[in-house]
Every structure is written in C-alpha cells, then in structure tokens.
Amino acid sequence: MTKRKRKGFTLIEMVIVMFIISVLLMLVIPNVVEQRNNAEKHSADAFIRTVQTVVDMDSYGETPITTQSALLDKLTKDQKERFQKLNLIYDTTSRTVKVDSNGAKH
C-alpha cells in the first residue's frame, strides 16, 4: 500500500472549526452589542449635558433662551440634527433639555 499525500482538510475538520467559531461568536456578539448600546447611551447623555450647558450659559446673557427654536438657533447644524434624532425637547418652564417621552415632533 502506498500512502497518498493529503491536500486540504477533511469535512469533519472543517465542521469542527466552524462549530468552534460559531460558539465563540455566540459568546462575543451579545457583549459587543451591549457595549455599543451603553456607548450610545453615554454619548447621548453627554450631548444632553452639553446642550444644557448652552442653555445655562445663555441664561446669564441679555436674551435668555425662551423657546426651543431659539435654542436650536444656538446649535450647529450637526448638533441640531442630533437634537432631533435623539428626540429631545427644551422645557421652557424648567429650562431643561430632556428626551421627549411622548414622541411628539416639535
């Protein structure tokens, strides 16, 4: 009997490798998704604090921000887009920026 040279992997070896990779992915993907969601939440919180700082600093000026439209005029184009994407509102009574829980567009 002559030994023949093997070229490549057997089917069972390929299946085992694919199984190991899929198990690793099942362990890693949920953590990555959770970390991404946490990062987005922290980023949104930081943005809200930034916009609130704009409101607070402007309250010391001669013309304090009294409407959401006036607040949006103080923001850059990117900040305006993010303000609307995060569904934020400016509460004129409490002079705070918060997420609109009603989901209404202003």
What would the keywords be for this entry?
106 residues, mainly alpha, two-stranded antiparallel sheet, 3 helices, 8% strand, competence, N_methyl_site, transmembrane, transmembrane helix
Give a brief description.
This protein has three helices and two strands; from the N terminus they run αααββ.
Question: Count the strands?
Answer: 2
Q: Would you tell me the overall average pLDDT?
A: 88
Strand order of the largest sheet: 1-2
Tally of domains: 1
> Structural class of the secondary structure composition?
mainly alpha
Largest sheet features: 2 strands, antiparallel
**Which radius of gyration do the C-alpha atoms yield?**
27 Å
Helical percentage = 55-70%
The rounded distance between the terminal residues' Cα atoms is 83 Å
Summarize the helix and strand pattern as letters.
HHHEE
Number of helices: 3
Strand content: 5-15%
- The oligomeric status of these chains comes to single chain
> Globular, elongated, flat, extended or rod-shaped: what is the shape?
rod-shaped
Low-confidence stretches: none
Protein name: Competence protein ComGC
Keywords: Competence, Membrane, Transmembrane, Transmembrane helix
Organism: Companilactobacillus ginsenosidimutans
Transmembrane segments: 12-33
Question: What does the model show?
Answer:
Helices cover 60% and strands 8% of the residues. It is mainly alpha-helical. The protein has one domain. Strands 1-2 form a two-stranded antiparallel ribbon. The protein is built from three helices and two strands.
Could you outline the blueprint of secondary structure elements for this entry?
Elements: H1 11-58, H2 68-74, H3 77-85, E1 88-91, E2 96-99
Antiparallel strand pairs: 1-2
